Amino acid sequence: MRHIIAVLLENESGALARVVGLFAQRGYNIDSLTVAATEDPTMSRLTLVTRGDDQVIEQITKQLHKLIEVVKLVDLSESAHIERELMMVKVKASGDQREEVKRCADIFRGQIIDVSPTTYTIQVVGTSDKLEAFIEAMCNTQILEVVRTGVSGISRGEKALSL
Amino acid sequence: MSQQHQPELLSGGAMLIRALRDEGVEFVYGYPGGAVLHIYDALFQQTEVKHVLVRHEQAATHMADAYARASGKAGVVLVTSGPGATNAVTGIATAYMDSIPMVVICGQVMSHLIGDDAFQETDMLGISRPIVKHNMSVRNPADIPALVKKAFYIAQSGRPGPVVLDIPKDMTMPNQKFPYEYPKDIKLRSYNPNAKGHPGQIKKALQTLLAAKKPVLYAGGGVILGQASAELTELAQRLNLPVTNTLMGLGAYPATDPQFIGMLGMHGTYEANQVMHNADVIFAVGARFDDRVTNATKKFCPNATIIHIDIDPASISKTIMAHVPIVGLVKPVLQEMLHQLEKHGNTLDQAALGQWWQQIGQWREVHGGRFEHRTDLLKPQAVIEAVWRHTKGDAYVTSDVGQHQMFAAQYYKFDKPNRWINSGGLGTMGFGLPAAMGVKLHYPEAEVVCVTGEGSIQMNIQELSTCKQYGLGVKIINLNNGYLGMVKQWQDMNYDSRYSSSYMDSLPDFVKLAEAYGHVGIRVTSPEELEPALEKAFALKDKLVFLDIHVDPKEHVYPMQVPGGAMNDMFLSKTERT
Ligand SMILES: Cc1ncc(C[n+]2csc(CCOP(=O)(O)OP(=O)(O)O)c2C)c(N)n1
Ligand SMILES: [Mg+2]
């Protein structure tokens, strides 16, 4: 099962290495990982997408908790939440193709953020599924480059991961 | 403001030593080098914190580790950057695997050189990350007192473990001084280790235990680390529970008490493994269901309801699902259980318990720790029994790793906690001698025995020199079987006795070697020489005596669990299997 784990971390050098090291050391998967400082500059927030059965996920959250610099964490997948990922796709687009690419981007509410005589760069925001669907929809187009930020997540309603 | 409230101005190096003093540290074990010269100079200029100069940094870590195992307080290591730090790695990993509190101070190259592949630069934070509870580096000399406080706090609280403090050389400059004040308390928003245990869970645990017909108490190193032996013993005796200890838990419950059924697991007693396998309630206290205990987890104790107390939630339901988990320090949790028991009374089904003890009595007769007694050949088991007698069961016993370790665990009956000191989790050959030194230094009046093998002792034999320098009169029991015996045993059992590199040719004359270092050496080659040799060795109170005892090279350790089997699938001798 896919899980999205959000972690509040002391914003100290080495803290991120400890999280990543833990996953490598214990053989856990990381599908994606994003990290940046929060409104409180002493804390970073990290969103991790991982896979495993219940026992593995339980170990992952427990082991993360044990890291001294982990302040708090939550498995977002356990309750209602929102996830978003940003993707930029650079595609070959000339002649007739230009219209078709544009139409497809519109359907996915993508934005064309850069243009050259032979290429378009499209930005799409959404769940990972949506991003994958967009790539699939572009299968008739020559994709030059794909870059994804990885998932960020937040829980719905009044629930908040904060101090 | 009065004069005495003015904090003293000290250099980074001097602050470090002062902070150690204020933390109550008496001894630091270490080895100097370029990156720590300022610190060594600060050490030289005071007398309260004493330094012990080892011959190899690994030994410094094991000394600190063993001191911690015997006393419950963190041991302190001081090494230089680069090779000094990497030499300490095995000892840090050893402490980590057994959850031993330790503070390792490593020198580092000047801050501005970090990342340049400078002389004797290694990324010690990176190297040690997977084998420490935490590590930190000093960025500003003024932070040193707070970082030392933090290091000790983290090392000693919750589930203990080693902490590495990396100190670039420019953080300890003698001419840069800062106001020194040692923090009284420390609080970390991201770390809150002291759990008392959920009262509802504790109640449920007691109810589950009292409903058992075939209970067993399975106690591990957490009871010793958590200083909860007295509570454990009281609870076990009030309820008349059979008690088994892990390798790390030996001494948590008195071994000579009739309720003790021996160690469990790979080389556990027949009765302990049978009791576990057939139990209906397993009460696990400060133990972690290690693979050396459980054997194949799929076949583990099929009928048991499991109650598990541990301070580390990650140890609960990691390999074996716990039905009643309690996250908490074992001492307050057991105290609460005793308190609740007082209120509710002992409602255990006494008839069922009586039957259970009868069954246990029958299991005890099956193997009962038997071994062959010979008049022409020394048996290692007999040596350990003799050492136990000669030390009245009250010595600190350290060991190395191999058959001799298992014989010591099986045949030395530990009645007190903190007396059995061995590398259980990592299984580090070379641990025994420095460990004995660490204990002897702090408990000079106590009898300290190192049980070792001719393979293991050579991994840190150079420390005989340190022993001479500091007058450490430990007794070394070298169970010399001429082989890397434990390896040979596996080769006998699984590789048709093809002894691939398990025989060591050209062993030194250990007696002469001991003498060369200024100690006493005694060789024992036949059973009748054993008693007089032990007599003589233990009479030489302040001397290090190296007893090179030639034992049966063919002996195996039994019982031994059958790999891939259940807990009670065991070999009982070379020819018997359950
Ligand atoms: C540093 C290290 N290297 C290798 C091993 C693997 N090992 C485990 S027991 C053993 C043999 C130990 O021989 P010895 O010290 O003579 O003890 P014996 O088993 O003969 O009593 C070896 C090589 C280990 N535990 N530690
Ligand atoms: Mg040997």
Automatic annotation (TrEMBL), chain A:
Any one Gene Ontology molecular-function term assigned to this protein's record: acetolactate synthase activity
E.C. code: 2.2.1.6
Pfam families listed in its UniProt record: ACT_AHAS_ss, ALS_ss_C
Pathway assignment: Amino-acid biosynthesis; L-valine biosynthesis; L-valine from pyruvate: step 1/4; Amino-acid biosynthesis; L-isoleucine biosynthesis; L-isoleucine from 2-oxobutanoate: step 1/4
Domain ACT: 4-78
Entry annotated with the keyword rRNA processing: no
Reactions catalysed, as given in the entry: 2 pyruvate + H(+) = (2S)-2-acetolactate + CO2
Keyword annotations: Amino-acid biosynthesis, Branched-chain amino acid biosynthesis, Transferase
Enzyme class: transferase
Highest taxon of source: Bacteria
Family assignment from sequence similarity: Belongs to the acetolactate synthase small subunit family.
Binding partners and assembly: Dimer of large and small chains.
Protein purpose: Catalyzes the conversion of 2 pyruvate molecules into acetolactate in the first common step of the biosynthetic pathway of the branched-amino acids such as leucine, isoleucine, and valine.
Identification of the protein by name: Acetolactate synthase small subunit
Organism for this UniProt entry: Rheinheimera tilapiae
